[in-house]
Design a protein that fits this description.
Number of helices: 4
Shape: globular
Mean pLDDT: 94
Strand content: 5-15%
Structural class: alpha+beta
Largest sheet: 3 strands, antiparallel
C-alpha cells in the first residue's frame, strides 16, 4: 500500500459508483460517501444519525441487496452497514457494478 495509489483508486471507485447510483434512484433517498465507504438509505430524505437511518425502507433495501447478489454485486444486507470499494475496483468493475445497479433498480421499480 505504501508504494501504490490504492487509496486513490478505491476512493475514486466509490465516488463514481455513488454518484451514478444516486442519479438512478428515483425515490426519496439519501446517499452518503466518505472516501471508499458509501451507503444508500432508501425511502427517506435525510439521515444524520442512527435514529433517522433506522427509518429507511428496510424491505426495499433488502430486495436491492438480494437482486444485486444474484447479478454478482455484493452490498451488505443492511443499510446500517457500509459498502466499501477497494483498489481492485478497476474501471471494468466499476462499469459492471453500475450496469448491475441500473438493471436491478429498473426491475425493482416495476
Amino acid at each position: 500500500l505504501e508504494h501504490t495509489n490504492a487509496y486513490e483508486i478505491s476512493n475514486e471507485a466509490a465516488k463514481v459508483i455513488s454518484q451514478e447510483v444516486d442519479q438512478m434512484i428515483k425515490i426519496d433517498h439519501v446517499t452518503h460517501r466518505v472516501g471508499s465507504m458509501m451507503q444508500f438509505f432508501l425511502g427517506v430524505k435525510e439521515v444524520k444519525n442512527a435514529t433517522e437511518a433506522k427509518k429507511a425502507n428496510k424491505s426495499l433495501y433488502l430486495n436491492l441487496h438480494e437482486q444485486l447478489l444474484k447479478e454478482g454485486v455484493f452490498i451488505p444486507p443492511s443499510q446500517l452497514e457500509t459498502i466499501f470499494t477497494s483498489a481492485s475496483h478497476s474501471q471494468n468493475v466499476i462499469n459492471f457494478t453500475i450496469d448491475k445497479f441500473r438493471k436491478v433498480l429498473r426491475e425493482i421499480k416495476k
